[in-house]
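Side project, low priority. Logging it here so it doesn't get lost.
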Amino acid sequence: MTSVMLASYPEVFAAGAIIAGLPYGVATNPSEAATRMFQSPARPASELGDLVRNASKHHGPWPKVSVWHGGAGLIRAILPCAGSQCSVRGPPPAGAAPLPGQDC
């Protein structure tokens, strides 16, 4: 839900924390979200970034995002790349290195 709120209302939030969540827009209902947690194809950073950028008409600064995604316990069942994809808003700026696991 955090990714939905940050993407839909970026002007309201300075920051948010996504804990074992999915990237914005990869699921449209609870059943699809459950499926995506366990078997979701990797998506290019540009596609994920477009989903976020098109969620609102916002053109100002975007909220900072802290992504918490573990590798043990119940969280381990969720695909590891879901965590890294939560932080993707699009391709890195010219000259910047891509995020680790950006296109896992």
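Brief comment: DSSP finds four helices and two strands in the chain.
Revisit when time allows.
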